[in-house]
Structure formats: C-alpha cells, structure tokens
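Trying the structure run again after the queue cleared.
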Amino acid sequence: MKLYDQAVDLQLKLEAAQSADSGIELVTKADHLVEALDNATGYLTGLLRLRSRLSLTEALTIDAKASAAAVSAFRAGLSRYGPKAFQQQPATKLIEVARDQRTRAARWAGARWRSIFEGYQQLLEQTQPGRLFGGTRQRFAAERIATKLLMLQRQDPIADEDKIIAELCDGDSSASWLERVKSLGDDLARALQSLEDERASLASEVQEALELATSEDGLPLTEVTASLLDALHAAGVDGDLVVRRR
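Done. Tokens:
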C-alpha cells in the first residue's frame, strides 16, 4: 500500500510539473506572437512618418491577402481552442507573416532612405582619406560633414529614428529629413569648392605634386626637390604629405 501511495504521489507531481511546463510554454509562445505583431505594426507606423519626412508619394505595398488569412486562421483557433491556440500552427504562421512584413518594410524604407544620399556620392568620394589637401579649417569641415553623411546613410530610418533625429535634426522631431540632408550636402559642396579654389590658386608645380600624391602610384620621393619642398611649405600643404613604402 505504501508503494502504491508513493506511485500516486509521484504521478500527481509529474502531472503538476507537466502542467507548469505547458503553462510556461504557452506564455512563451504568446510572448513571441505579441512581440512579432508589435514589431511589425510599430515599423509600419514608422513608415508613415518616414514618408512625410522624405516627402515620398509612393507607399509600401502590403501583402494584405496573406496577412488577412493568417489573422483569420489564428482567430478561428482562439475561438475553438482558447489559449492553446498560441501553441498551434496558425499562431506560428501569423508570426512568420508579421516578421515577413517587417522585413519587407525594412528593405523598402532602407532603399528610400539611402536614395536621398545618391546625389552626394561623388562629393563623398572626394573626401576619402588622402584625397583632401588645403586649409585645415575647410578640410576638417569637409571631412566632418562627410563622416556625418556616411553615418546617417548607414542607419535604419525606422529602427534608428531617434538617433537620426538627434544627429540630423538636433532633436527636432518635426524637421524635414530631406531638407536637412540637402543642407548637409550643400555644406559639403561649399567646403570642397573652397578647397578647390584654394588648390587652383597654388603654383603649378604644387598642384602637380598634389595630384601625383593622390594618385595610385603616389609622388615618388626622387621627384621631391628642395625647391618643391619650399613651394609646398609656402603653400601650407607640406604637412599633408607623408612618405610610405610601396
């Protein structure tokens, strides 16, 4: 009898443990579903703000048929099975659809965001390391603006919305991102033009030396004469040149 009582007690404990595990699994499944839906709806809501900030007239095409079918199937499961529906296939399918919609939205938003920087790519290429020569103030200004533009270009316009507002708009959430990016691009163009004007005013031998220095082969040390060094120093660009081995 004692052995029987022990067996019954063990069975009850096992059933309680299984029930607890099932409850934990159900809560976990429900959390995953809620998280996926929150992420998708939050991202899609962010798209509305992005369209306004970038003055976009086009909109993302949502797969409404797949979304409606997934929601309908999950609702049917809830009606029939109650909370257990979170552990069944319709819930898994709804999570997949929500994640897919968010992924599509992220690709769409990223492409539109990056497209507004396309007009400044040539300017950004001119600011690559070793390609800028001239006055320290103008050069640093060009490099600073280019670094900021490149940093902004890499951001996710929805997930990194707060960072973009802080860095691009100085915290002004109502500012037009399109206008702010254009302003940065114009500032970069002016800084580079100032450097170009300064470069054009240099002696021809200094200009030639700088062009060679920025080329793939560089400026051979054998061509650096005493008179060239004096000319580079007089132009204030001698500190911009360094010697490297091939």
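Confidence is low (pLDDT under 50) at residues 1-8. Worth checking whether this holds up in the mutant runs.
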